[in-house]
């Protein structure tokens, strides 16, 4: 799943000078976005946001469901990023221009590396079935952003189990567990599943910035109450994080070394400036460079028009 807005916002972010402070509590409300037209699936988008656009290299976060929905996302392009698909409920079929075809189920990780360019499509297996999940993007650093596109699926991920809490390491490393997912910058992504009254103290890296998102339940994070919806940004400078559930639920933990480079995000592209984004759009509209997604009957998605103004840098946060 991707950014299907027909009037997408330009987002330029990155750069350590505008990066994370020491430990903070910033509650970042998301905005509702409808994917696939007025009757499409609704998502809550907390990254990029008005105030905070990145957490480490994590630059995009959509949370959708749980609700009956039909995902029908036709072929569309990506550059300069990795897509991370993580489901809690339901199933989605992924197809891409490399010839990959993969059924995504809860607990399995889909990781697609766009690099210099890829296209893909995603659709529900059962129409109007309950679906719940998150879609994330990871910005690729300059040394990796033009690599060949790639796809990987991991049905088994490292898991830490303590009384009342199960931690699944989706990407990067946490508490000595390392995900098999390929990453190109220091980061971590993990899901924590809590029983009622479950709690855990996680070791953190002080040089990373972190954020947590409650996916369900009723959670306290570093003493702050967190219900599903907003993203709680925690900043840098922490060596541990205490999480506790008032009632059973799930939490997404994101973290990473503050991203050094400024990036421009527009539609489904991550680049470094206006001319580059303009070229990506032109190549998609001309049908070149991004390959063909086979096996789907969903129409190809045209790129929206570029804004009248040039895409300009604004820094990691407003």
From TrEMBL:
Cited Gene3D superfamilies? Jelly Rolls
Q: Which SUPFAM superfamilies match?
A: RmlC-like cupins (SSF51182)
Basic and acidic residues bias locations: 1-10
According to the entry, every stretch annotated as the Pirin N-terminal domain falls at 41-138
Pirin C-terminal domain: residues covered: 191-287
Show the segment(s) annotated as Disordered.
1-21, 299-318
Q: Which PANTHER family match?
A: PIRIN, PIRIN-RELATED
Q: Which family does it belong to?
A: Belongs to the pirin family.
**What protein name applies here?**
Pirin family protein
Report the source organism.
Sphaerisporangium dianthi
């Amino acid at each position: 799943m991707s950014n299907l807005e027909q009037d997408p916002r330009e987002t330029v972010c990155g750069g350590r000078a505008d990066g994370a402070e020491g430990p903070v509590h910033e509650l970042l409300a998301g905005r509702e976005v409808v994917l696939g037209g007025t009757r499409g699936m609704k998502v809550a988008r907390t990254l990029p946001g008005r105030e905070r656009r990145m957490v480490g290299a994590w630059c995009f976060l959509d949370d959708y469901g749980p609700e009956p929905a039909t995902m029908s996302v036709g072929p569309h392009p990506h550059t300069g990023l990795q897509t991370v698909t993580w489901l809690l409920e339901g199933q989605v079929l992924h197809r891409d221009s490399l010839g990959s075809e993969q059924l995504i189920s809860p607990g399995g990780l889909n990781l697609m590396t766009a690099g210099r360019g890829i296209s893909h499509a995603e659709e529900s297996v059962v129409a109007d079935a309950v679906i719940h999940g998150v879609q994330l993007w990871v910005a690729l650093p300059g040394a990796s952003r033009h690599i060949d596109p790639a796809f990987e699926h991991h049905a088994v991920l490292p898991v830490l189990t303590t009384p009342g809490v199960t931690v699944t390491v989706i990407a990067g490393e946490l508490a000595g567990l390392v995900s098999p997912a390929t990453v190109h910058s220091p980061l971590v992504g993990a899901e924590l599943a809590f029983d009622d009254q479950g709690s855990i103290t996680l070791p953190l890296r002080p040089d990373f910035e972190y954020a947590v998102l409650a996916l369900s339940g009723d959670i306290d994070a570093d003493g702050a109450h967190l219900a599903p919806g907003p993203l709680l940004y925690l900043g840098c400078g922490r060596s541990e994080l205490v999480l506790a559930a008032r009632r059973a639920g799930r939490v997404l933990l994101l973290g990473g070394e503050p991203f050094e480079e400024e990036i421009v995000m527009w539609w489904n592209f991550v680049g470094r400036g206006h001319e580059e984004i303009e070229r990506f759009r032109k190549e998609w509209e001309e049908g070149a460079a991004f390959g063909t997604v086979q096996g789907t009957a969903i129409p190809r998605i045209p790129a929206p028009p570029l804004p009248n103004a040039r895409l300009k840098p604004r820094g990691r946060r407003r």
